[in-house]
């Protein structure tokens, strides 16, 4: 299963990309975006989280790498990496094909397929379906938007003060005993970030959020004596380079 | 003194060589014993000082801008350009009629970039007079300072007599490296936009225009995923006159009563300006190098790559400020006309920055070209359904308007001096839709629409329709066909294209030598694009009858249509592109291929 997925990703990226790279007006571009790097308190203890992505490619073909995770009270609660081949399919939408690997609660590989882009009203949307190496189908929907509250306040000529509401919902079509996931909606994360961009490279923020397990997954956690929700308040920095 | 080859023969030869991809006849490799002028120019990296701040620059001839090249019509010039950079370079002679291999655009007409350490010898005969300029056509080097003015004196005495003659070269200079700017544009939409509308603006608009009008406006832009404050992709520029910043205050001297010719050249990478000299009327005498019937104006808008020659006649012994404000009002270029060095006049109040409207999104476009009937039936919610739906609608409808109907609708400056509300409403059946109110539109402090230059009341701005060539051509043949060139792009990805194809993915435009054609620009984006054709002048269909002005750059306003005629009498494969540097970099370029009427035999 793993080999099949990797071969598909490699083939999809390499074959069509080659002719495009030959032309200077399609020069390769790259960017690393640190979307979240923050630390603070939560109802389950101190919390550290990260979300970083890197992309490299031409207008038509890109390779995307993303890693995100969180630690609560020094215990890694979630850590994953994803590698996608990304290609535009319309003015506002891209298709993503690739691979995800979870490191917690157990090591797990997934094949991934999804769409990302900008929905009307400037909502950034990412919808991805995953098939785990255990054969379980799951899905994730993420959306956020940046509301510009005020232009540069400190005369720094930066973009200004943003409010960013964000939502992430996960669902599973089957049970995964090791991951303690049951069929149905599994968990969600709501957050609100207030960010000041001195420059796009230096953008500190404060963020509050609420994570909760849902449905049968939540019932299972409750039965195991675990807490099913966690609210947090953190400070962090966003950057791109 | 004549060359062994006639001009026309050498042209064909060069073009044939270029097309075959074989270097057989570089006129530049001939001996230049019979040239009238030989000029050496070195391209090198250095540092320059603008308003007391040092930045990196690439220079031609050691300065920014490069030296003014003063030539005479009819003479043959030889320019030896030596590349002292560590990367390839090139120099393109913007607006000059010459053999393709001398044009200086790498990858076209058999011309290849000048490699580090190499010298390339340009050699061509000057077939025209007027104000032109030169710049690098490699990567984004032009942005770093590689540009300069060309002044060609006419072979016969000028009908316009002046005592003083100055070049006023406008440019935008950034402390950032051009590659970094391009990367930022690609990596984040609106990276440089410091004028985006905020929640506070929303509250202000609600107070001013009411809740429902403001919501309707935000809804329309939100549905389209477009930003009405996107007037210039790049900010952070210093705006220069002849390489001098606003504090440096470049001064042009005059004695009261003298007639002064100012040759305005917009050598900027990305910035277009509204140019005015408060208290001094200007008479526009030429556009893009070639003479027009004089037009008195108070101000003009100049697109990237355009040139305008104006004559002023200051009679008082006082200073006048030459004020050039970029469309996003992120600064200004300033120079002074004064009887003595060191004098200065007041800086006029800075003009407000306009906000784009639905008309700039192509709503006016459909209505104007199709008489409104096809669109009248559509409601607004349908129109604002998003980029792809709109694009489909536009080209579906456009070709229907047929030949000959273009000119009336083609004037990209149509609204310049119009008082806003009534003019736009008349031109655009959909104008009122998402706009707050008619009163807001007429408010000089809250200008709406790309056209709105903030022209003071009672002052007159140049319109494209004012430009009339001094040369009447009553018997100009009708075009045999129309070529549609849709100006397209995806702002979010910073992908710019022509007919939805980026350069390298496109097929080019192919015509035969001697063909008379019409090119119809249809701007489907919300930015203005200065479209530049190498090698030939375009006759802009601006309603001037048999006096269509010759242009090498035609500024096509957002969402609008414009058209030009041309006789394809210069064989070669010529670059045809948007002169906004990073739009060209992103792919907004194509080949304009003029095939010889009879293909020259290879032997």
From TrEMBL, chain A:
A Pfam family recorded for this sequence: CopB
UniProt KW Signal keyword: yes
Top-level taxon in the UniProt lineage: Bacteria
Annotated InterPro entries: Cu-R_B_prcur
Keywords, alphabetical: Signal
Signal peptide: 1-22
Protein name, entry field: Copper resistance protein B
Taxonomic lineage from the root: Bacteria, Pseudomonadati, Pseudomonadota, Alphaproteobacteria, Acetobacterales
Automatic annotation (TrEMBL), chain B:
InterPro entries: Cu-oxidase-like_N, Cu-oxidase_2nd, Cu-oxidase_C, Cu-oxidase_fam, Cu-R_CopA, Cu_oxidase_CS, Cu_oxidase_Cu_BS, Cupredoxin
A Pfam family per the record: Cu-oxidase_2
Domain Plastocyanin-like residues, every copy: 43-155, 235-336, 478-597
CDD domains: CuRO_2_CopA, CuRO_3_CopA
PROSITE patterns the record matches: MULTICOPPER_OXIDASE1, MULTICOPPER_OXIDASE2, TAT
Keywords: Copper, Metal-binding, Oxidoreductase
Cited PANTHER family: FI03373P-RELATED (PTHR11709:SF394), MULTI-COPPER OXIDASE (PTHR11709)
Protein known as: Copper resistance system multicopper oxidase
Species: Falsiroseomonas oleicola
């Amino acid at each position: 299963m793993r080999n099949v997925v990797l071969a598909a990703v490699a083939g999809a990226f390499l074959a069509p990309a080659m002719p495009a790279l030959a032309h200077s007006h399609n020069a390769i571009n790259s960017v690393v975006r640190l979307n979240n790097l923050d630390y603070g308190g939560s109802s389950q203890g101190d919390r550290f989280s990260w979300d970083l992505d890197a992309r490299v490619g031409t207008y038509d073909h890109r390779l995307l790498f993303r890693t995100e995770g969180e630690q609560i009270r020094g215990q890694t609660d979630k850590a994953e990496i994803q590698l996608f081949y990304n290609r535009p399919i319309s003015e506002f939408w891209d298709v993503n094909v690739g691979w995800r690997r979870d490191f917690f609660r157990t090591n797990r590989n997934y094949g991934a397929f999804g769409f990302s882009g900008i929905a009307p009203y400037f909502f950034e949307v990412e919808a991805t379906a995953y098939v785990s190496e255990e054969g379980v189908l799951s899905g994730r929907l993420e959306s956020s938007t940046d509301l510009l509250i005020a232009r540069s306040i400190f005369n720094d000529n930066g973009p200004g003060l943003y409010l960013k509401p964000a939502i992430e919902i996960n669902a599973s079509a089957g049970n995964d005993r090791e991951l303690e996931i049951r069929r149905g909606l599994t968990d969600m994360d709501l957050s609100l970030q207030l960010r000041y961009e001195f420059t796009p490279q230096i953008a500190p923020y404060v963020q509050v959020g609420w994570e909760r397990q849902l449905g049968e997954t939540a019932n299972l956690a409750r039965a195991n004596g675990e807490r099913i929700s966690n609210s947090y308040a953190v400070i962090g920095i966003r950057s791109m380079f | 003194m004549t060359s062994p080859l006639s001009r026309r023969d050498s042209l064909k030869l060069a073009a044939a060589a270029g097309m075959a991809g074989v270097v057989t006849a570089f006129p530049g490799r001939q001996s230049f014993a019979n040239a009238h002028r030989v000029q050496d120019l070195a391209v090198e990296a250095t540092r320059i000082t603008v308003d007391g701040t040092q930045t990196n620059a690439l220079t031609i001839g050691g300065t920014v801008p490069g030296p003014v090249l003063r030539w005479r019509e009819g003479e043959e010039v030889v320019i030896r350009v030596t590349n002292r950079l560590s990367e390839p370079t090139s120099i393109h002679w913007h607006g000059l009629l010459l053999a393709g291999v001398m044009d200086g655009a790498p990858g076209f007409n058999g011309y290849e970039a000048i490699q580090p350490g190499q010298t390339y010898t340009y050699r061509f005969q000057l077939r025209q007079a007027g104000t032109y300029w030169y710049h690098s056509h490699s990567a984004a080097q032009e942005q770093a300072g590689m540009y300069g003015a060309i002044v060609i004196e006419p072979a016969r005495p000028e009908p316009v007599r002046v005592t003083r003659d100055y070049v006023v070269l406008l440019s935008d200079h950034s402390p950032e490296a051009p590659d970094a700017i391009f990367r930022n544009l690609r990596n984040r939409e609106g990276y440089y936009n410091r004028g985006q509308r905020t929640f506070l603006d929303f509250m202000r608009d609600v107070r001013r225009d009411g809740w429902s009008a403001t919501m309707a406006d935000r809804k329309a832009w939100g549905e389209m995923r477009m930003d009405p404050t996107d007037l210039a992709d790049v900010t952070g520029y210093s705006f220069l006159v002849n390489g001098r910043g606003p504090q440096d205050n470049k001064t042009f001297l005059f004695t009261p009563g003298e007639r002064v010719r100012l040759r305005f050249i917009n050598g900027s990478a990305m910035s277009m300006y509204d140019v005015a000299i408060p208290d001094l009327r200007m008479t526009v005498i030429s556009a893009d190098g070639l003479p027009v019937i004089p037009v008195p104006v108070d101000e003009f808008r100049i697109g990237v790559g355009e040139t305008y020659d104006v004559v002023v006649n200051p009679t008082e012994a006082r200073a006048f400020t030459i004020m050039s404000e970029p469309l996003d009002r992120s600064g200004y270029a300033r120079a002074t006309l004064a009887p003595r060095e060191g004098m200065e006049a007041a800086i006029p109040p800075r003009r407000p920055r306009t906000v784009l409207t639905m008309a700039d999104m192509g709503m006016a476009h459909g209505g104007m070209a199709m008489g409104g009937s096809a669109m009248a039936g559509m409601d607004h919610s349908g129109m604002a359904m998003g980029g792809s739906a709109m694009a489909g609608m536009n080209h579906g409808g456009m070709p229907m308007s047929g030949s000959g109907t273009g000119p009336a609708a083609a004037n990209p400056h149509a609204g310049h001096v119009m008082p806003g509300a009534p003019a736009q409403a008349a031109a655009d059946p959909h104008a009122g839709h998402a706009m707050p109110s008619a009163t807001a539109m007429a408010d000089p402090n809250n200008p709406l629409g790309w056209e709105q230059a903030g022209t003071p009341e009672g002052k007159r701005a140049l319109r494209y329709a004012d430009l009339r060539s001094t040369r009447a051509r009553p018997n100009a043949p009708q075009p045999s066909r129309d070529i549609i060139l849709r100006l397209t792009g995806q702002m979010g990805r910073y992908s710019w294209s022509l007919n939805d194809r980026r350069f390298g993915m496109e097929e080019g435009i192919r015509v035969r030598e001697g063909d008379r054609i019409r090119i119809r620009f249809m701007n489907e984006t919300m930015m203005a694009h200065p479209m530049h054709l190498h090698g030939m002048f375009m006759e802009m269909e601006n309603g001037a009858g048999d006096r269509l002005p010759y242009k090498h750059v035609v500024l096509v306003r957002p969402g609008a249509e414009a058209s030009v005629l041309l006789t394809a009498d210069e064989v070669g494969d010529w670059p045809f592109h948007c002169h906004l540097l990073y739009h060209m970099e992103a792919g907004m370029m194509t080949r304009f291929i003029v095939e010889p009427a009879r293909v020259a035999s290879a032997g």
